[in-house]
Design goal:
By secondary structure, this protein is mostly helical. Helix content is about 75%, strand content about 0%. It has two domains: about 1-115, no CATH class; about 115-205, no CATH class.
Length: about 210
């Protein structure tokens, strides 16, 4: 599977002020943006918040091209959502919904481009520890996040490969030619991942 751009960009080494920001504060930023997406009702406010997130991303030194790639990958989905909401609820509401989604995407990107994966997972473990009293397993939760981060590029690459293959055969508009191979590849990948975890004793809950 060849490499492909993914929704959430990878870590970019640097010494910017965003890199040096404590991880808990960056987690709080992402959570705040997610909460704001439900509370903000004015698309102008959403646009202003998106502008701030874009500035933070650029301050990290990750570059405009990487930011544009992250936004571009969700553009087709947001175009459909925006058109439907425009038809149902009008332009201002559609703009607010689309902008709020972009805010969350860019905020998550700010976190991932300025935080090494291992530090991110360690932070997840630390944040999850208070929930151990309720039966939560912080290590397993972090492992789940790690598998997700590893799987997203694979699935995105699988879809891109299948799309290119279908286009070469003149089947790019055939849903079965696109969906079925990606589904089969994804299931096979999930089975391989499960077998690898089971071989290491990580697939089953401890007694």
């Amino acid at each position: 599977m060849r490499g492909h751009g993914v929704l959430i960009p990878n870590y970019v080494p640097g010494d910017s002020i965003v890199h040096r920001t404590p991880l808990w504060l960056k987690f709080l930023l992402v959570a705040g943006c997610g909460l704001a997406s439900f509370l903000v009702v004015d698309w102008l406010v959403s646009a202003a918040v998106l502008g701030v997130m874009c500035v933070l991303f650029l301050l990290s030194g990750a570059g405009l091209k990487r930011l544009a790639r992250s936004v571009w990958l969700v553009t087709p989905i947001l175009a459909v959502i925006g058109a439907f909401q425009w038809w149902q609820l009008g332009g201002p509401v559609a703009a607010r919904i689309v902008l709020n989604v972009l805010v969350c995407v860019v905020a998550a990107s700010v976190l991932t481009v300025t935080t090494p994966v291992q530090a991110l997972l360690d932070g997840v473990v630390a944040l999850s520890k208070p929930f151990k009293r309720f039966g939560a397993d912080p290590e397993r939760f972090a492992l789940t996040i790690a598998i997700m981060l590893r799987s997203l590029p694979f699935i995105a690459g699988a879809f891109s490969d299948v799309r290119d293959s279908a286009r070469a055969r003149g089947l790019e508009r055939n849903p079965r030619a696109l969906v079925l191979p990606v589904f089969i590849t994804t299931v096979a990948y999930a089975r391989q991942t499960g077998d690898a975890l089971a071989a290491r004793g990580l697939g089953d809950a401890e007694d």
